[in-house]
């Protein structure tokens, strides 16, 4: 059962090189915190990533909200990833047919596949979306998360949709390394998926727009997820991002330790 194993033990056994490197990174840096850096200015995004970098394993971007995006932003984020030892996850939520997502992933202004270690996709279109992204990502050592559930109120990603998404992940294990999910699913022989969970907050439970925030203890210890994704809880106005990131890192790590009972 991967839920009770340490990230380090799981890294040793993992067959996907990027997932392996990511699990090793979490163990080495003692953090399961991902920053959701939803900022619209390049300078602000770089400043936030530099401040919060020491506390995170993963920087999650929405690169298409940045108003002054350029290649230099990518170069700077990549340099910060090296400096602080974190990986990058462009939260693109691909949702089209295989041929179209190949173009969206590799081309256009953002060229996501050239810099983002991890990206994600909805399974609404069926398995062609995974095959298209895999054609581009696998040769570059990238990997994919599938959105099996969502954190927002009234989400349609549930029941059979979630079950089929998990089956698709098993079918394309060489490229699909985990899920955006609200809880850990039962393992089958040979499974070791990484569960990343948004909708995490220490101080508030909702944003008035459908987002639902849960405590890291619930998400990691009780529901078995591996990575907490936190945005506004860290960078909202009036907060000190480095201080908040440290709080979330400590809370996430404590919950993980309790889960694996070290
Ligand atoms: O179901 C989801 C999936 C994702 S990736 N719910 C989410 O909130 N997200 C993302 O997580 C969302 O796009 C945002 O970037 C982040 C949550 O940010 P917060 O400010 O609510 O913590």
Molecular structure report:
By secondary structure, the chain is of the alpha/beta class. 41% of the residues lie in helices and 15% in strands. The chain contains ten helices and eight strands. The protein has helices at 7-13, 17-29, 42-52, 71-84, 98-106, 128-137, 160-171, 216-222, 232-235, 241-260, and strands spanning 33-37, 58-61, 87-94, 118-121, 143-147, 176-180, 194-197, 227-230. It has an eight-stranded parallel β-barrel, surrounded by eight helices. Helix 8 links the parallel strand 7 (194-197) and strand 8 (227-230). Helix 1 packs antiparallel against helix 2 (17-29) and helix 8 (216-222) runs parallel beside helix 10 (241-260). The longest helix has 20 residues, at 241-260. The protein is globular. 6-sulfanyluridine-5'-phosphate binds next to strand 8 and helix 9.
Structural class: alpha/beta
Query: What is the residue-mean pLDDT, rounded to a whole number?
Result: 97
Shape, per Cα inertia axes: globular
Q: What order do the SSEs take from the amino end to the carboxyl end, as H and E?
A: HHEHEHEHEHEHEEHEHH
- Cofactors and ligands: 6-sulfanyluridine-5'-phosphate
Order of the strands making up the biggest sheet:
1-2-3-4-5-6-7-8
Low-confidence stretches: none
List how many beta strands DSSP finds.
8
Helix content percent band: 40-55%
Report the span from N to C terminus.
Answer: 15 Å
The proportion of strand residues reads 5-15%
Sheet with the most strands? 8 strands, parallel, barrel
Report Rg.
17 Å
How many helices in DSSP terms? 10
Binding site for substrate: 38, 60, 151, 211, 231-232
Organism: Modicella reniformis
Pfam families: OMPdecase (PF00215)
Catalytic activity: orotidine 5'-phosphate + H(+) = UMP + CO2
């Amino acid at each position: 059962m991967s839920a009770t194993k340490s990230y380090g033990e799981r890294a040793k056994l993992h067959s996907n090189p990027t997932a392996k490197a990511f699990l090793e990174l979490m163990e080495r840096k003692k953090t399961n915190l991902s920053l959701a850096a939803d900022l619209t200015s390049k300078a602000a995004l770089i400043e936030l990533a530099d401040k919060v970098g020491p506390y995170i394993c993963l920087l999650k971007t929405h690169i298409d909200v940045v108003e002054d995006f350029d290649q230099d932003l990518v170069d700077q984020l990549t340099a910060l990833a090296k400096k602080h030892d974190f990986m990058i996850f462009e939260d693109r939520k691909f949702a089209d047919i295989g041929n179209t997502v190949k173009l969206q992933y590799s081309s256009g202004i953002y060229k996501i596949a050239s810099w983002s270690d991890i990206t994600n996709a909805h399974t609404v279109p069926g398995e062609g979306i995974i095959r298209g992204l895999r054609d581009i990502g696998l040769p570059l050592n990238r990997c994919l998360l599938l959105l099996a559930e969502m954190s927002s109120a009234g989400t349609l990603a549930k029941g059979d949709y979630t079950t089929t998404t998990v089956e698709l992940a098993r079918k394309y294990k060489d490229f699909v390394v985990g899920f955006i999910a609200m809880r850990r699913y039962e393992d089958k022989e040979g499974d070791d998926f990484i569960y990343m969970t948004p909708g995490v907050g220490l101080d508030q439970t909702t944003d008035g727009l459908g987002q639902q925030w849960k405590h890291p203890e619930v998400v990691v210890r009780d529901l078995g997820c591996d990575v907490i994704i936190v945005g506004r809880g860290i960078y909202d106005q009036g907060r000190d991002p480095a201080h908040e990131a440290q709080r979330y890192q400590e809370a996430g790590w404590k919950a993980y330790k309790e889960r694996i009972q070290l």
